[in-house]
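Section 3.1: Structural characterization of target chains.
Under the original work plan, the team committed to producing a structural model for every single-chain target entering the pipeline before any wet-lab resources were allocated. The record below documents one such target. The sequence was received from the expression subgroup and is listed exactly as submitted; it comprises 337 residues.
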Amino acid sequence: MSKITSTAGARSLSQLAAPLSGMIGRNFLSIDELSNEELRGLLDLSKQYKATYGKGSAIDPLEAPKPFTGKSVAMIFQKRSTRTRVSTETGCYLLGGHGLFLGPSDVQLGVNESMRDTACVLSGFNDIVLARVHGHSDIEELSEHATVPVINALSDKHHPLQTLADLMALEDHFGEMRGKTLAWVGDGNNVLHDLMMGCAKLGINVRIATPKGYECDADILEKTEALAKENGTADVFCTTVASDAVKGSDVIVTDTWVSMGQEDEYAKRVAEFDGYEVNSKLMAKANDGAVFLHCLPRHKEEVTDEVFYSDASLIFPEAENRMWTVMAVMAAQLGKY
């Protein structure tokens, strides 16, 4: 298994796109579907897009390339989201295309029209279908019947776009990440699933603390352990004690303890996550210079303001990177850079 090191600053756009040729026309449902080279290519292309289209760019927005001219993306949202909608819609516009928002009142997947029929209809109108769904089976069914590439913008099993944004934020901050250690403190959910596999691919050690009964899925842990072995990282460390996971780590990550649809479980979950708040005391157990990530939105019990708004927090660059990375994914699927 080849090691993957960023060389984005030293390559042309055509060179950056070369490792991504195999993604043209492909779906993107989870991070483990990517080869190491494709993961590296997406991260490097994302950085190039930030340099070209970002607010710090010296390039006139009117003069920037518009490779998506004449292209459109259908954006299906069974679940609301600030970052996913704004990043996709704005990113598509920056590349010259059009993002079409379809909320629950516009498209009721599998209710007034079958999933298969929706996939076929949207494939006739649009060049990509991006969907943020409840069950992972929904995104799988969409991708089975769509004749254009499908992007999983979140399901109950996977959140690959978030992982790309997280890894980009970490590389922007640290540079080379191989050999660094990331600690997850919280629910063993969809965000963790892709992040742990993505970390293993980049040679990042993974340490996980979850309360009993909130562990990550066994099949994802098995895949991550295999990826860790292939890429020469340490065995995945799992515990129920937050401070044990954080010890010796360079990155501390958490997520909401109560996801959409789990509001009735709020009191129960908050009680069972006692001791998992990310605060200065917990951060102090990590390595010097450790940073904090959270995919947002956050709730007050998950992380203190002292950490959330500190210099160690990368949450807002992390959020911005959702745009650069989804732009890279769409470009790779269309072969338009």
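Residues 185 and 324 are 26 Å apart (CA to CA).
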